[in-house]
Amino acid sequence: MNRMLKYKILPGIFIALFFGTLNVMAADMSSVADTLQVAQQTEHIAQLPPFYMIIPFVLLLMMIATGPLFYKHFWEKHYPKISIILGGFVVVYYLSVLHNHHSLMHSFTEYISFIALLGSLFVASGGILIKVDRESTPMANVLFLLFGAVISNIIGTTGASMLLIRPFIKMNRERLRPYHIIFFIFIVSNVGGALTPIGDPPLFLGFLSGVPFFWVIDNVWFIWIPALLMILAVFYIFDSLNKEEYEKIEYSGKIEFKGLKNLGYLAIIIISVFIDPAVIPWVPKLPFGLPFGIREIIMFGVIYFSYRGADTEILKANEFDFEPIKEVAYLFIGIFATMVPALELIAEFAKDHADKLNAGVFYWATGTLSAVLDNTPTYMNFLSAAMGKYALVVTDKVQVAHFVSVDQVYLQAISVAAVFFGAITYIGNGPNFMVKSISERAGIKMPSFFTYMIKYSLVILVPIYAIIWLLFFYGKG
C-alpha cells in the first residue's frame, strides 16, 4: 500500500477539526489552561443541562462495552458513525438549546491536545524497534514492567506503552496470555505515570494551573511505591502459576535497539508539552480562536515527519499501522462530546457539597469518575471543589500555589485517584485502548469490556486501591 495514501492524519481529527471551525468565533482558547479559565468564568451564566442529556454518554459507553461482544461485525463497521452521531446530538443541543459554545470548545480543545499527544507518541514510538532475546520468566517480566512504570514518568504513559508493548508481547510469545497485557495496562499505561506532570494528562493540567512541577513526585512517591509493588506482586503470582509446557528455545540474552533518531522525536514531543502561554509567557497564542496552539502544531508535525522518515523495516517488524490510534480518535471524539453534560453536572454537585467532601470522598469520587470519564476534567473539577473549601479559585495560579502549601492531602487524593483508576476500564485512559488494539492485531484474544472489569480490574485493583485509601486518606480532611 502506498505509504502516503495510507497515512491520512487520523480521520477522527479531520472530523473534529471540521466541528471546530463551526465555533471559530469563540474566544481564544489555544491552550488547555485558557479554555478552563473561560469555561469557569462563564459558568455562572451558563444554563446547566438536564439530567437526561447524559443518556448519549451512557449509551456510547454501553455500546463500547457490548459491541465487540454481541454485535462485533456491526460495531467494527459502524462505530465511527455511532460515536459521531451521539456526540453530534449533544453538540446540537448545546448550540441550539443552551446556546453554550464555551463548554463545547473547552472539551474540543482538550480533545485536540489529547489526540495530538497520543498520536505523536504513537507514531514516534512506532519507529523504534526493541528486541529482547531473553527467556520470559515471572521475575524478568516484573523487572520489565517496573522499568516501564519508571519511564512512563519521562515519556508519558502513552509513550511508554507504545514503545514497550510490542517487545513485551514478543518476549512472552511462547507463554503469552491475556493477563500479561492486562497487567501491562495496569502498570505501564496507568499507575506508572503518577510521579510527574508528563506522566499523565491530569497532572500536566494541574501543572499548567499552578501546581509546582516537582510537587507530584515529592508528595506521591510514597503512595506510588506500595501501590506499584502490590500490583507487581499479584502479577508475579499470576505469572508463576502459568505452568503450561512450551518448546524451549535458545536465547542470546541480548537486547537490540533500532530507530535511534526517533528518540529525538520523543524528546521534541516532551519539550513541546511546555510550549504553552500558560507555562512560558512569551509563547504566542494563535489567532482566530483556533482550538489548538503551537504545541499541537509541533506534535502533528512530529506525526508527519517521524512517519515519513521512519525505517520501513522497523515499521514492518513492529506491524505498525494507524488502526489503533484511528480507533481512539473516533471513539474519543464521541466521548469528549457526550461527557460534557455529565462533567458539568458533577462540577455543580461538587461545588454545592464541597463542605461535605473529605480526602476519602475526593479519592473515591475522583477515581470512580476517572474510570469512565476523561480523568483530566474530572481532576480539575474536584481540584476546583477542594479549593472551594478554602474560598480559593483554580483559575488563579497564585491561589493554586497557596492551596498546595495549605493542605496537600486533598490534592494527593485527587492526583493519585485520577491516575490510578484510569486502569479500571478500557476507556479510563487513552493508552488502554491502543494497547488492547495492538494486542488483538497480534492475535491475542483480549477480554471484553465487562470481562476486563469483572475478572481483573475490580477484583485486583479495587482491593489494592482500598488499602491505599486506608493507609493514606481514611479519616483525613
Task: Walk me through the topology.
Layout: H1 3-6, H2 11-21, H3 32-41, H4 55-70, H5 72-98, H6 102-126, E1 129-132, H7 138-171, H8 178-187, H9 201-209, H10 215-240, E2 255-258, H11 261-272, H12 294-308, H13 312-317, H14 323-352, H15 359-372, H16 375-388, H17 397-406, H18 409-420, H19 430-441, H20 449-472
Antiparallel strand pairs: 1-2
Helix pairs in contact: 2-6, 2-14, 3-6, 4-5, 4-14, 5-14, 6-7, 6-11, 6-12, 6-14, 7-8, 7-10, 7-19, 8-10, 9-16, 10-20, 11-12, 14-16, 14-19, 15-16, 15-18, 16-18
Describe this structure in words.
The chain is mainly α and 477 residues long. It has one domain. 67% of the residues lie in helices and 2% in strands. The chain has a two-stranded antiparallel ribbon. Helix 16 packs antiparallel against helix 18 (409-420). The protein is globular and about 65 Å long. The protein starts with a helix and ends in a 5-residue tail after the last helix.
